[in-house]
């Protein structure tokens, strides 16, 4: 939002505006002259007039207006735009920076990329049979409590969901907390791990941007050997002589 006071123009918030955004202008004047209007001329980075606005100030010497930067205009000049404001003998101007593309949404919860920790051997690559701790540090950016759903999903290279787990918690205002979900991969291959923060499961609204991590799971020969021995011992205990005769034959 832009604000003018006397002969100076102040930036009350950000100076960067993306295409599609509305630029709001608030102002106050030293005095109000009957019959006069505030004149606002907006020029793009090529010096061409983008729009002209005229507004009557209120009895308390203030005025407010706005204009919108077009969203779907490939020929729209980006860069430094100038807003010129004049009223009777007073004048001021301010530059804003117009950026291409839509503004990214401001989320109420922050979640970075998850951290992956192997419980038994945190320094080596992840292998089949490792117990992996998926850790995320989540922060509530609001000055109020928020109920959130922290969701973890793991997919294989075919897009099939291997793991889906979630936690439900109410975060206090500006609270930061660490969530942890465990997963033990049973097969080698390429996997994608995704984390989400939603406000609800049935009708979800994202409270943060989603995060994803790609990882490769390798074969652990020791794990495979142990699994084979385990299966062999279970079959032998269950089937007894029939199993031994089958192996021998």
Q: Could you state the order of secondary-structure elements as H and E?
A: EEEEEEEEEEEEEEEEEHH
Mean pLDDT: 81
Radius of gyration computed on alpha carbons:
31 Å
Shape verdict: elongated
Name given to the CATH homologous superfamily of the largest domain: Immunoglobulins
Task: Compute the number of structural domains.
Answer: 3
CATH class of the largest domain equals: Mainly Beta
Largest sheet: 5 strands, mixed
Percentage of β-strand residues: over 45%
Task: Say what the CATH topology of the largest domain is.
Answer: Immunoglobulin-like
Portion in helices: 10-25%
CATH 2nd-level architecture of the largest domain: Sandwich
Give a structural overview.
- Mean pLDDT is 81; it is low at 4-13 and 245-249.
- The chain has 3 domains: 2-99, Immunoglobulin-like (Sandwich); 109-218, Immunoglobulin-like; 222-249, no CATH class.
- By secondary structure, the protein is mostly beta strands.
- It is elongated.
- The termini are far apart.
- Helix content is 11%, strand content 48%.
């Amino acid at each position: 939002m832009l604000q003018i006071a006397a002969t100076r123009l102040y930036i009350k918030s950000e100076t960067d505006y993306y295409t599609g955004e509305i630029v709001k202008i608030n102002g106050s004047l030293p005095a109000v002259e009957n019959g006069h209007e505030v004149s606002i001329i907006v020029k793009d980075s090529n010096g061409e007039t983008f729009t002209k606005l005229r507004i009557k100030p209120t009895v308390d010497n203030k005025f407010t207006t706005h204009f919108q930067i077009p969203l779907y205009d490939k020929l729209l000049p980006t860069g430094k735009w100038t807003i010129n404001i004049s009223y009777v003998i007073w004048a001021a101007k301010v530059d804003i920076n117009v950026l291409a593309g839509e503004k990214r949404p401001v989320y109420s919860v922050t979640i970075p990329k998850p951290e992956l920790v192997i419980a038994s051997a945190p320094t080596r690559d992840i292998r089949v049979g490792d117990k992996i701790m998926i850790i995320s540090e989540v922060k509530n950016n609001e000055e109020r409590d928020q109920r959130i759903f922290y969701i973890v999903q793991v997919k294989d290279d075919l897009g099939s969901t291997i793991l889906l787990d979630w936690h439900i918690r109410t975060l206090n205002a500006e609270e930061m907390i660490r969530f942890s979900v465990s997963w033990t991969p049973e097969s080698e291959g390429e996997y994608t791990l995704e984390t989400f923060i939603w406000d609800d499961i049935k009708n979800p609204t994202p409270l943060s941007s989603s995060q994803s991590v790609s990882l490769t799971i390798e074969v652990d020969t020791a794990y495979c050997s142990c699994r084979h021995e385990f299966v062999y011992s279970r079959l032998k205990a269950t089937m007894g002589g029939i199993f031994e005769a089958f192996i021998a034959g």
